[in-house]
Amino acid sequence: MRALLYTALLSLTLASSVYSDTDSTASAPVDAAETELGDRVFASRGSNITLPCRLHRRHGMSFGRVGIRIKWTKLSADESLEEDVLVSMGFHKKSYGSFLGRVRLLEADDDDASLLINDVSLDDMGKFRCEVIDGMDDVIHEVTLEVQGSVGYSDGVVFPYSPRLGRYNLNFHHAEQACLDQDSVVASFDQLYKAWRSGLDWCNAGWLNDGSVQYPITNPRQACGGVNSGAGLRSYGQRDKSKSHYDVFCFTSAVNGRFYWLVQPDKLTFNEAAQACQDDGAEIAKVGQMYAAWKLNGYDRCDSGWLADGSVRYPISRPRRNCSPTEAAVRFVGFPDKKQKLFGVYCFKGQQ
Description:
Elements: H1 2-23, E1 34-44, E2 49-51, E3 69-75, E4 82-89, E5 92-95, E6 103-105, E7 115-117, E8 126-133, E9 139-148, E10 157-161, H2 172-181, E11 185-186, H3 189-197, E12 206-207, E13 212-217, E14 232-238, E15 247-252, E16 257-261, H4 270-279, E17 283-284, H5 287-297, E18 305-306, E19 312-316, E20 329-334, E21 344-350
């Protein structure tokens, strides 16, 4: 009897030891989600990209996709909001919003939950979250998508923007729309920081995509925080997204198409300029397209031309007398009366 009791106790002890060793390999219970961080992938505008996500089965068994729920979401810059991208349950799949018809699961095997995005846009930049739930080996995986510019300028270009109404007239939501209207998105802190490291100096504060307001100074001066303040990014911190009003820093990358000056015999009003581009099989160019052509392709022309927002600008990549003599820049003439017949026009023809 003692021998039987000893054998039973020994068996229970060994079983407990095995269970403890198995459980100690994870900081959470077996049925809790395993979170994976740190992946970063890069894509060009208009290309297709795969965001990786796999279910790592600890129990070593696969029962196919029946009963597995896969959900992809996109996080806002401050990670306070999630935008649904795609939800899959077995054979039922649904995509949402701007991703409708552009995303699908790769499904290379039963453990693959990777997301394929077609026709990548600037607005797709950011952090995505993949959640795979099968009741046993749940996984939460995060991956950041970066949208590259052209070769040698993988970070695109950051530019300050204010509307016709003048400086400090945009709340955060209007700032987002203003950048989208100019073929760009609100810049991130990292993008503004890299632009500052490359020489961007701007004395007007602008929104960033995390809801903060900042401005880059490379040449400290009295009118911009004082001469005794060091060069760097000056921050106003987080601001009320609805009530606070500033300018905005936008980000754009290489464009799929041709930006060009439309040769015309006469100067044009704004409406005539827009029509002239349309007659040439194009559209009047946007501010972001001018910055991309200037910064990423070295576009240079010393002629003031209308752009889609009603502003007049010209891009100089080779500084010279009477054409931005001190620095390469996109020169801003202003928002003139649209009826003035004083300027030419810049057009953009998208790639077919």
